[in-house]
Amino acid sequence: MSTSNALPSTRAGTHAIVYGGSMAGLMTAGLLSRHFDRITLVERDRFQNGPMPRKGVPQAQHVHGLLTRGMDILAGIFPGIREDIEATGAEFLDVIETTASFGSGTWRPRFRSDVKAASMSRLLLEWVVRQRLQALPNVRILDGREAVGLKTNGERTHVTGLQIQAPGGGQEETLEAELVVDSSGRGSRTPQWLEALGYPRVEETRIHVDVGYASRLYRQPRGFDPGWRSLAIAPRLPKERRIGIIQEIEDDRWLALVGGWLGDAVSTADDAAFLEFARGLPQPHLYEAIKNAEPLGPIHLYRFSHHQRRHYERMPRFPEGLAVVGDAFCSFNPIYGQGMSTGAMQAEALGGCLRQGVRGASNRYRRRAGEILAGPWALATAGDLAFPEVEGKRPPGFDLMRWYGNRFQQLAGYDEETMKTFVQVQHMIESPAAMFSPRMVLKVLTVDPDKATRNPGPRPLSISTQRVA
Question: What percentage of the chain has pLDDT greater than the value 90?
């Protein structure tokens, strides 16, 4: 089922370093292996031999989705990885046909769309990708090492390497390289390191949303057949704040997530709190599905305070030999599921810049990354800025765009073309401009709100679910 072509290989240099073993870091290291003789991936945690959680990725045990665009890029970096994923028992499912989706006060139509995504856990996905990376002959993984500083030339205009040591202290070691890539996440210290080198502090935009969510694994009840493989219940923003998701993952398990905006979240990891929160979702289906299902582990809690975008593309000066990818560049509200895929797009962009040579690649890349992030940032923050309580600068025409977006969502409740367009934009197959084509604008302006409420959705399941002994 592989449809992606392998990304081009063009030699740019001898050695590149990636620090941070996130999904963005793993993909970037794989991409750079096509352009450098040697790659070193530096990670503070010790990698386990299997799909196991680690301290540096506390959110890994929650629902994740690699969007279609992200998977296409991943398959271009590691040809055949779709087959590797299927070999684990995970599946690629049509995201419209197999998902019962409730949003903007209505159940969405379901039909075959050929927009597919992997139905699997983040832990398993990361493990499959890491195995492929480890198999590359020119990649070395240095786990249990912490990046502590950048090495530069005497004029501090060019990053020439990375200083590392064991976490918590120990003797420092310097790795020389022609390119150093920061994929260390939201807590990246690159802003401070650049400032210490005499560069201006990178401008940051933060939008505080105080999102919290809780996730738990369940075994699917025996004989369970609701007609859907995954379930998504989204609120009408800003009137409602709670969201619920059941994601089918490998080994016939469910990963159930409940959460909300502005502090409306599960606060304690106990059964009663989790179920009571699920009962308060806009629709009863998630609660009915899990209330008699067998839990397979503890409840995991996670809090996310704010969107964070570092505007490296705006810096008047920036050193050669340095690039920033993933959450270290821009970190989105994870409810929207954009993080891994935007990281993949940044990795792809870096490869494109390197095909023009390593000289000047850092500046070409940071500007290109800024352009790539503009669309996903606008989509993710638009919903959150709909809350009057959320502080942040609303862009010009925000109220008009919000009105249009609400009517577009109403139309998606009964019009298949609109629903498919929405999902294609969501999965980054199409740009947001697809929602504003002349045909779509005409449809939105003539939407029938009554039609959007006529889809009854799936039947609640209180009678059919039974606890597995």
Answer: 86
Over 60: is that where the pLDDT of 468 sits? Answer: no
Measured in degrees and rounded to the nearest 5, phi and psi for residue 308 equal -145, 115
The DSSP call for residue 461 is -
**CATH number, domain with residue 80:** 3.50.50.60
Q: What range does the domain containing 272 cover? A: 209-305
Query: Is residue 359 located within the same domain as residue 243?
Result: no
- Cα separation, 38 vs 60, in Å, equals 29
CA–CA dist 7, 33 (Å, integer): 11
How confident is the model over 79-96, as pLDDT tens digits? 999 999 999 999 999 999
Same domain, 361 and 258: no
Query: How many helices (H) and strands (E) in the chain?
Result: 12, 19
Average pLDDT over residues 233-244: 94
Q: Report the distance separating Cα 175 and Cα 60, nearest Å.
A: 29
Per-residue pLDDT at 168: 82
User: What pLDDT, on the 0 to 100 scale, is given for residue 197?
Assistant: 97
Helices 361-385 & 339-354 angle (0-180, nearest 10): 160
Q: How many residues does the chain have?
A: 469
Burial of 92 (0-12, 13-18, 19+ CB in 10 A): middle
Q: What is the DSSP track for 344-396? A: HHHHHHHHHHHTT-STTHHHHHHHHHHHHHHHHHHHHHHHHHTSTTS-SPPPT
- The answer to whether residue 393 is domain-embedded is no
What band does 453 get if pLDDT is binned at 50, 70 and 90?
low
Q: How confident is the model at residue 469 (pLDDT cuts 50, 70, 90)?
A: very low
Tokens of 95: 């995201």
